[in-house]
Amino acid sequence: MDQQDRQVERQRGSEASDFALIRVALYKRMKAIAAFPILLAFCAVTVVLALPKRYEATATVQIDPRQRSKSTISDAPDLEPHQQTIEAEMSALQSAPVIRGAIDALHLDDDPEFKSYWPATWLSRLLGATPERNTEAALLKRLSVSRLRNTLLVSIRISSSDPVKSARIANAVADAYLKDWAAGKSSAETAATMLGQRLKDDIDGDGIITESERVFASLLAQFGQNSEVPGPSIVAAAVPPREATAAKPARTAGVAFALGLVAAVGLALLLEFKTSTRASRVEHAFACPHMTSLPTIPAHDATSARACRFVLAEPRGQYAEAVRETCRELEKRRSGAPSRLTLVVSALPGEGAECLASNIAHQYAVAGHSPLLVDADLRMGSLTRQLAGRSSSGLLDQIVNRKPVESAILRDCATGLHFLPACGPTPIPLPVRDILRSKAFADSMTALKRDFVTIVMSGPPLLTVGDAHTLAELADDIVFVTAWQKTPKRLARQALGKIAAHQPKIVGAALTDIADREDTAIMSLYEILEEMRTVAPVPAFRTHAA
Question: pTM to 2 decimals?
Answer without folding.
Answer: 0.52
